[in-house]
Amino acid sequence: MSFKGKIINDPIYGFISIDDPVVFRVVSHPYYQRLRRIYQMAFAHLVYPGAVHTRMAHSLGAYHLMSQALGELQRKGIEITPDEATAAKVAILLHDVGHGPFSHALEGTLVQGVHHETMSRLIMEHINAELNGALDTALAIFNNTYHKPFLHQLVSGQLDVDRMDYLNRDSFFTGVSEGVIGYDRIIKMLTVHNGQLMVEEKAVYSIEKFLVARRLMYWQVYLHKTVLAAEQMLVRIIRRAREIGAGCHPNLHYVLYNRPDTEDAAELLRRFTMLDDVDVMMAIKEWQQHPDRVLATMCTCLLNRNLFKIKLQSEPIAPEVIAQKKAAIRQAHPDVTEEELSYLVFTGEARNTTYKTDDERINILFKDGSVRDISQVDNALIQQSLAATVGKQYICYLSV
Amino acid sequence: MSFKGKIINDPIYGFISIDDPVVFRVVSHPYYQRLRRIYQMAFAHLVYPGAVHTRMAHSLGAYHLMSQALGELQRKGIEITPDEATAAKVAILLHDVGHGPFSHALEGTLVQGVHHETMSRLIMEHINAELNGALDTALAIFNNTYHKPFLHQLVSGQLDVDRMDYLNRDSFFTGVSEGVIGYDRIIKMLTVHNGQLMVEEKAVYSIEKFLVARRLMYWQVYLHKTVLAAEQMLVRIIRRAREIGAGCHPNLHYVLYNRPDTEDAAELLRRFTMLDDVDVMMAIKEWQQHPDRVLATMCTCLLNRNLFKIKLQSEPIAPEVIAQKKAAIRQAHPDVTEEELSYLVFTGEARNTTYKTDDERINILFKDGSVRDISQVDNALIQQSLAATVGKQYICYLSV
Amino acid sequence: MSFKGKIINDPIYGFISIDDPVVFRVVSHPYYQRLRRIYQMAFAHLVYPGAVHTRMAHSLGAYHLMSQALGELQRKGIEITPDEATAAKVAILLHDVGHGPFSHALEGTLVQGVHHETMSRLIMEHINAELNGALDTALAIFNNTYHKPFLHQLVSGQLDVDRMDYLNRDSFFTGVSEGVIGYDRIIKMLTVHNGQLMVEEKAVYSIEKFLVARRLMYWQVYLHKTVLAAEQMLVRIIRRAREIGAGCHPNLHYVLYNRPDTEDAAELLRRFTMLDDVDVMMAIKEWQQHPDRVLATMCTCLLNRNLFKIKLQSEPIAPEVIAQKKAAIRQAHPDVTEEELSYLVFTGEARNTTYKTDDERINILFKDGSVRDISQVDNALIQQSLAATVGKQYICYLSV
Amino acid sequence: MSFKGKIINDPIYGFISIDDPVVFRVVSHPYYQRLRRIYQMAFAHLVYPGAVHTRMAHSLGAYHLMSQALGELQRKGIEITPDEATAAKVAILLHDVGHGPFSHALEGTLVQGVHHETMSRLIMEHINAELNGALDTALAIFNNTYHKPFLHQLVSGQLDVDRMDYLNRDSFFTGVSEGVIGYDRIIKMLTVHNGQLMVEEKAVYSIEKFLVARRLMYWQVYLHKTVLAAEQMLVRIIRRAREIGAGCHPNLHYVLYNRPDTEDAAELLRRFTMLDDVDVMMAIKEWQQHPDRVLATMCTCLLNRNLFKIKLQSEPIAPEVIAQKKAAIRQAHPDVTEEELSYLVFTGEARNTTYKTDDERINILFKDGSVRDISQVDNALIQQSLAATVGKQYICYLSV
């Protein structure tokens, strides 16, 4: 049977082509289709109503950029075989397949102690077995054990197609146009030197712009205080439900109450791949009527966008501020317990780094053959001081 | 307490301002927030993955265009009081609040025999009571009993802000850029003559373009054959579930099994306003394991985007084609019943009209004061022949 | 010496690649570079200030679309050799190289009786001689003598890349966003059947949209009454200058006063290829001080955008209206002659056809292998009545 | 006679409204209309073919942003009278009216020793006299003698509407999409504190983005090496012409050969206001045939885009490199003089500063009422090191 190919409309890139039968089988797999039902940006849509795009749309977008990047490198004479190209495309398609409901927002909360990359690997292995090893190279690239490291760097690195797509896409759907990056220009300037992914000298200003766009998106969107409040409420809803043993649909129940290290891993994976945002949203809708008033309150508030108040600042939250917020609730509800208050008033830290220099770098290849990190070029905008992780402190509380 | 106003980011229009306390209360109401959880385009995202935008985003967009249109008319000297302006804005915000899960796709299926406009009216009356009559004028405009008919025509007419927004928005999110309309130009050319909404003479080509964009969006997007297949599967899932008495969450259950004419209307409304896409999606997820194999099959196929095949044509579907599709299933599943087959092979008609001339018109106001319908101008593109409803016949079937 | 290729930034398409040495030589030729100094839309910028884009930008854009279209056809299995591809690209690059200053606006006025396509052919032959026949195939395609007619149809036909680019580009630079067409979608749907260029069945609505966009651009932009007035003033400036023997730079002078049929064709061509908008603009600037008051007035009015008034209507201009405009001028300037008045008050007709069915057609290839014209499909928007040329009458006059 | 207002289409902002009779008279003035014939970006179009937009389009765009900014400040309760608003709009419309042909590229070369702001002031005074003092306040704002300094800062400052428009516009027309700035967001966040223009705290990331976009546009576009080469050739064409007394049209001739300090200033101004790019382009076209071979060569090369080669570097150009380039020319043209060589091989420096902290600042108004410079906020991206002017050295030479 011949494979005719498929064209998908994308609001950002126009047409995305699926022109390989393995890619088509991966995209058609129920595990992949599940990504349709997971928001890319969790509850950011409570602030940016357009931001309801899905993990699947992002995955397809990153796949599209991967196709472009591979084509560009091939045009520049870098050897990439057809099998390697397919494998790199599959690797990027599946790089986020291990995300659970509300992805980052519930990472570590829903399935405790397991990172989504580990889940992605398990799911890829599962699909690989179904497809009789067709994903072997994709897995090697994903795991960074393949002998051409630049392929892994395209999937996951300081300048990977994952970031290029999510910055662009999140910017597009939120309407925060300042997050738009010149992805086509950056892709045109990618190159490979000694097996490593680099960018050409003239890309310096585009890279600076990319890093500054990322910085802006973090503080203005991903760590927007109202988004933070909503996502922290979600985390506490799950924690509270688990703590009091709140009932829910069997799949969600299984994942909530079985730790990954002690239980049947295969069963956990099976249950996990049936979960998406729908299950969690449905549980929250039901828990509005739960007898536990903390759980019910948090669920009703979140659903009706009647969110906890939040305050962000550079300095630690003063103990007296916390005490004052608790006192206000106690005045309105004299029978509230200290344990309940720990859900209704809480503090935390939002963190971001503009540019990490320690673990991975953005290497610039100069015309004279020398290689320097973006923070080491002449008159660099990106400096050592931006490599530090910046934390902002917040207090979040039920307003009474 | 003073009202500070609120700005919402929209990917299409940039900033949308909420600058009126009544509007703010409406937008904050749980009945309005529910629209966040209803897809604007039901299952169109199975073909256009970006099209996951919500009824709420559309409603806010239409509200924004209403603000622009009212401002433009005021600049032209048309009298619109501040109260009328607020009322028109509230009317457009709530014009779709009566949509249930998957809106048009399940209209008439979920709540049998009740149109979403009726539901919108009931909900508006409910909120109006809560707000002590603050929505009286909005209701009059919505019901077209207000003495300035152009205000109703802005909410609902051949050239209302509802259509302007949904064409633009659906075009934007699907990536079908050809649906984009020059809404700003049309709004600049709106006027009122004898109390009726009209457009100025020079708008003729923009209006033609608007109608052609609408025609294109219907055939290319809303009635796209794969979208049709998915939505018809959804309709039959609900019908089958009701027929066999499939279990589901109490709110959905109540609405499924109580006809609006025979039951307690207040209770039905209460249950209805707690439903959104989540409830239906959750039911479909659960019904994948339902013992009724027809229901389970349809649910699994829909969730995994393993859709029934569909064929569209101008001529009626020949009986032998239907027989042949049924025979194929019978061969694979010899014990299938005729009643089951009626779910697995079915036919229908997709219908659209490019321009309705009978009930409502797009009136052009000429410089000499005369008024003509768009289909009556010199060298009209929009002609009588486009006023006929065009139907395309389809057959949809499980592929075995 | 190896050819490295060149990338050009375009505000519409992003990056345009020049990847062929023959294409590069053509683009570098002074005859081609001259197109930088000719407005694509003559004096449309008096109404749409952004519309100052050049013939060269349009030519490069059409070249880019040609590259895309050829690639798409090749992917569909249509045989196009590398030499044919280069030739088709060169043919589109040079299709407009014969345009003189202010292109269409002065067509037939500056070089009397010679169409720009004839000039393009002469210039192509000239460059071909310089390049030792490297443009032989390009010329055959341009002249429609090549044995694959679809290549000529891509250069010049109802659905050629020339129109696709100019509609898009003119729409982009004027800000009349309604002229934007779904060029990428149309290109994806191009095909070749029996050697003829066609579009696939599903393109019907996109083609309708394309024709309606073109109709809109004609009446709203190209034949905008103020643009018409400015361009008719320009035509009459040239006519008046020639009539009274006004002085100007030798190259312009030679072309103005030598008829192409009676003079040394090689010398005329040589002079012509040195002319561009600059020469005409400079002459107009100088003629502001010309003793002939008609010429001086028209030049000053045009430069300062103090344009003649214009009135457009369906019916012929009544003789008494003309008489009245002349009388008004005569009252202000009693010594004005009838001959002078013929420049200060004049009438004419603006003409456009939405869809020509007689000479060339847009053929739709149906899945069953049948071919029908766009005006013959089911429920066609494009009908016979749109094939008629529509004329609007205008009177243009100096306002005193 | 009542003033009806006028709407201008702009490809970037959509509709620009002229709703004030004084503004309308300014825009209609021949001195203003002259800006139609001056490229905003001189010869940048040799690299970015779309960048042929005019000073007038930029001026109208800045005017539009001024209208938006004033409206926003008024909404925030800052007192701006209708007269002040009109004056601020006129001031921005005319801020660049003193630019001569090719604006920045020939600044100081054509009219020696006079800055374009001085010329703008003289022209504004001239129009003011014509309009009987209607521009008094506009002049005071322009000259920064008005008692509300924030109005001047909107016209000219680190965050003025001039920069916002040119970054946006130049980015749009070049196709370097990375220069796009979130102008609407910045405008929404403008405020006035103690009479000074400031931005609110939450604008920090948008301002960073604005400064980085500006940095990128400088190095990637304005100081692009090929653009530099073309503009330096233009400067040397004018210098050479003046040196050898090359003939040209009387207006250009007068300006070339009369120093502003020694001659009749009124006559110089009169001549100057009749010059635009056309005069200089025409002279260059004529000088192609000039007997001075240096002048003729430079003119022919510039017109045919056969530009001098250029090399940019951080270090000074080594004397031996200069000598080597001169030797190459001498070998090809043994009779070339050292004086001629000074035109055919030359060096220089391109300079830019990312953020000037000495003279003017971008002040951030914090919620607690404190004011800090953008370089002083927490975790600032914009640091002291970016306040230094960065120079790159170049050598530019005729390639033989």
TrEMBL record, chains A, B, C, D:
Domain HD/PDEase: 51-176
Annotated Pfam families: HD, HD_assoc_2
GO molecular function annotation: dGTPase activity
Example GO BP: dGTP catabolic process
SMART domains, A to Z: HDc
Official protein name in the record: HD domain-containing protein
Source organism: Phnomibacter ginsenosidimutans
Lineage summary: Bacteria, Pseudomonadati, Bacteroidota, Chitinophagia, Chitinophagales
